Sequence to fold (577 residues):
Amino acid sequence: MSTIESVSNERRIFEPPREFVAQANVKQADFDALNASAAADFTGFWAKLARGEVLWKKPFTRTLDESGAPFYKWFDDGELNVSYNCLDRNLANGNAEKVAIIFEADDGAVTKVTYRDLYHRVCRLANGLKSLGINKGDRVLVYMPMSIEGVVAMQACARIGATHSVVFGGFSAKSLQERIIDAGAVAVITADEQARGGKHLPLKAIVDEALGMGGCEGIRSVIVYRRTGGSVAFNAPRDAWLHELVGQQADTCEPEWVSAEHPLFILYTSGSTGKPKGVQHSSGGYLLWAILTMRWTFDIKPADIFWCTADIGWVTGHTYIAYGPLAVGATEVVFEGIPTYPDAGRFWQTIGKHKVSIFYTAPTAIRALVKASGVTPSTAPKNYDLSTLRLLGTVGEPINPEAWMWYHENVGGGRCPIVDTWWQTETGGHMITPLPGVTPTVPGSCTLPLPGVMAAIVDETGHDVENGHGGILVIKRAVAGDDPYDLGRSRAVQQSVFPRRARRQALSRRRWCRARQDDVVFHDHGSHRRCAQRVGASSRHDGDRVGARGQSDGGRGSGGGPSRRHDRRGPSARSSC
Fold:
């Protein structure tokens, strides 16, 4: 591996605004106490958080089981249901009539759904799935447009203990077929068409094409959401309209209580081989990390309107649309459209229209909108009411300092902290990011690890590098939200989670992530290994592009079918190699 030098000379520092600090969920003293707790008693740190944030049907007695390393188990003797934690808890805590989702369609039409409404929708679909013989442990492939129904489909699977695998709606029939086969799916939930940028694009027809390629004989049911009313072929009795299926069902459904290690979802991501790898996340640890990062990174408050512009086909859409916001009782915007339709002011118009207070998008989208506002000045952020914004975020790839400054000044008005988040599909949630009430920010830097994340930068022999030098970013201990089911080839270095080449700025030991290094990933306990070839393109986490849907690394599927690996637990284990 060639030497990595720290070449950034960025010296602009932005302290957290005093007004923000005064109301922050995590202040400096809290941050210090959390870090001290994690350092003093790592498993006790996670146990306390899990008991305080997650509703358990059967409380766990074992926090972290490392006996089968590299397969770490979190809270594995506890039982819970993720949908119950997202929906039922909000019926009991006074949020039943609170708006859960503000859905803005491609054409600007708005639908608002309360927590009570969402609960009943999820329960009806959950009952519908069970009526089709879909049960705990089955895999359901979700190939949907951005919609309330997409979130409902994911939550309904979680409610009955079925494992969902969401595929981005822009992927081809071949990509869909490969994922159906690899996941061992028994059903597909899709739509007639999707509406994007003023156009209607087929989904059901692509599902039919995928199933016709062979190897998908395990699919017993195809459930179709009527989004546009477009004409589609129907294959009875396999195919069923969503509205007809749920119209026959009761609007309550007892949740299926599952082990904390029960697989919640499989999400396919890609590496330099071009072969998608299925990453499996379990229920308990993933949910805990989604909740904590909503509270810590996004400083979520009851009055906030939260908007993550990701697609549910990516991990960002899983954690920060389908699960995290609902688990903390937030109101969120779900957006069907694209940033430039009908013009490049769509994001800014939507923020003003719904009084968004927390906005989370991708550097790709930001740079595109910088350019667009220069070409068409009327679409510049200054022409819209963005006064409700209090926090900005970026995700999906590194953000260059000048794009960061444009975002800070033109969208945030110079008053909103920016949380520049580094994480991966495998981690399930943020790992290195500023905390908006604590961390001084530097344009282009994701700054410091979250509490409980034992990060370091090392050389290829596993030794820490001196401050100011570049190296390999490692995570030295397992994190509750991290995917425990990745296997790969061994290598000489036996040190930590090994996700990325990075350079470290001498200034306050902040991190600048440069490019993904996927050769091997290690945990120091048992040398948990992951592998894939190194890629040269920078990305904040694999296979995710927020606000620029359709440009994911996951779309590079021409190199063959998904990678499938098995561990002692059978085909539910998935590899990122």
The first helix runs from residue 18 to 23. Residues 311 and 549 are 7 Å apart (CA to CA). The chain has a mean pLDDT of 85.
